[in-house]
Design a protein that fits this description.
Elements: E1 3-8, H1 15-23, E2 31-36, H2 39-45, H3 50-71, E3 76-79, H4 85-100, E4 105-108, H5 114-122, E5 136-139, H6 142-150, E6 157-159, E7 183-187, H7 196-209, E8 214-218, H8 224-233, E9 239-243, H9 247-256, E10 259-262, H10 271-278, E11 283-285, H11 291-294, E12 301-303, H12 309-321, H13 323-340, H14 343-356
Parallel strand pairs: 1-2, 1-3, 3-4, 4-5, 5-6, 7-8, 7-10, 8-9, 10-11, 11-12
Helix pairs in contact: 2-3, 7-12, 10-13
């Protein structure tokens, strides 16, 4: 059986694109990619001719999609929208075309627009009936599965995961050895919703007791300059803002870190948490998205409901003072991530389920 995956251009640095870029080497030859340009990408690259180009590229994508369906003998189709009005409206057209040609269609919903989700909860009819013609769904958390069931989806809804690129761990020691906790790592988009200010305030509290402690902030985002200004105005030193990193530079941050902190307000399945675990880092985070479904409190680190910095500081202090416990968490996280989150394993699991549908 052949599988056609509809995905945004995989060289674009974005969530879904990055996901399928990482999985591509581990799929069998039965998996074909149909890559398209998103509206946001066209608007960013070609702002002056955005509107006519958007229409032309969409027509091209539709024709190419039909051609690939015919060329590949009407394969199973995997669509990858976010749960938002525009993405669902776009992919609904692909779904209808695929069903017209008699293809099975599976839908992998990655991100969830909270505002649109709230609208659909109030009025489930906004989740158009065409989606009930899909043969199955993939989601990243049980709560998302429950939403689909609430909206009238009767077909199977499978839980899956984002992934850790196997190549990221090339050359990384199998065991991370701890002598002293020196470096905290915050690696995410620099936004208030990701918890950047909670992370900075947590670090400020810890510095009062552990003056040699350092915080590395990796990433870019709308609140990057505001976060720098906040740290400066509050005279919180020993914070380094690196900006976005990739490749060996990103790997170095994980290797040099001792604890990963992400006090985020909302997530699907944050890849950075999975990567941190694969590098053997204890994780300090919140009960959000798919983390709720697998995270073992105290065995993997600490999952904290509160947004108060002192709650995070208290848990990190436990790890700083108890290196043996930190080492145990590190070993557990690395083993768990290697078994469940590596791209090679995720690709095998995903393709295996698709072949059974």
């Amino acid at each position: 059986m052949r599988i056609l995956i509809n995905t945004p251009l995989i060289t674009i640095p974005a969530g879904v694109s990055n996901h399928y870029l990482g999985l591509k080497p581990y799929f069998s030859t039965n998996v074909i990619y149909n890559q398209y340009l998103t509206n946001n990408y066209i608007k960013l690259k070609f702002p002056r001719i955005y509107k006519p180009l958007r229409i032309l590229t969409f027509i091209y994508d539709i024709l190419k999609f039909i051609f690939l369906l015919i060329l590949n003998g009407f394969p199973l189709v995997l669509l990858n929208p976010s749960f938002g009005y525009r993405a669902l409206h776009r992919d609904e057209i692909f779904l209808k075309i695929a069903k017209f040609f008699g293809c099975k269609v599976v839908v992998f919903i990655h991100g969830w627009d909270k505002h649109y989700l709230e609208d659909v909860i109030l009025n489930p009819r906004k989740f158009r009936s065409a989606w009930k013609n899909a043969n199955a769904f993939f989601v990243l958390a049980k709560e998302f599965k429950e939403y689909l069931e609430q909206f009238g989806i009767k077909v199977p809804v499978y839980l899956t995961s984002t992934k850790v690129n196997d190549k990221l761990l090339t050359g990384v020691p199998e065991v991370k050895e701890f002598c002293k906790i020196s470096n905290l790592l915050f690696l995410a988009r620099i936004e208030k919703a990701k918890g950047i200010f909670t992370a900075i305030d947590t670090f400020a509290l810890l510095r009062e007791k552990f003056p040699d402690l350092k915080l590395r902030v990796v990433g870019s985002g709308v609140m990057l300059e505001a976060a720098k200004k906040y740290a400066n105005e509050n005279e919180i030193d020993n914070i380094t803002f690196t900006g976005p990193l990739s490749g060996d530079e990103l790997k170095r941050e994980y290797i040099n870190a001792d604890i990963y902190i992400l006090p985020s307000l909302s997530e699907g399945m944050p890849t950075t948490v999975l990567e941190a675990m694969a590098f053997g880092l204890p994780v300090i985070t919140r009960p959000v998205g798919g983390l709720i479904d697998f995270f073992k409190n105290e065995k993997m680190g600490y999952m904290i409901e509160s947004l108060e910095p002192d709650k995070y500081a208290d848990k990190i202090e436990i790890l700083i003072k108890n290196i043996k416990k930190t080492q145990e968490i590190s070993s557990y996280n690395k083993a768990y991530a290697m078994k469940h989150f590596m791209a090679s394993n995720v690709a095998k699991q995903l393709e295996g389920i698709l072949k059974l549908i």
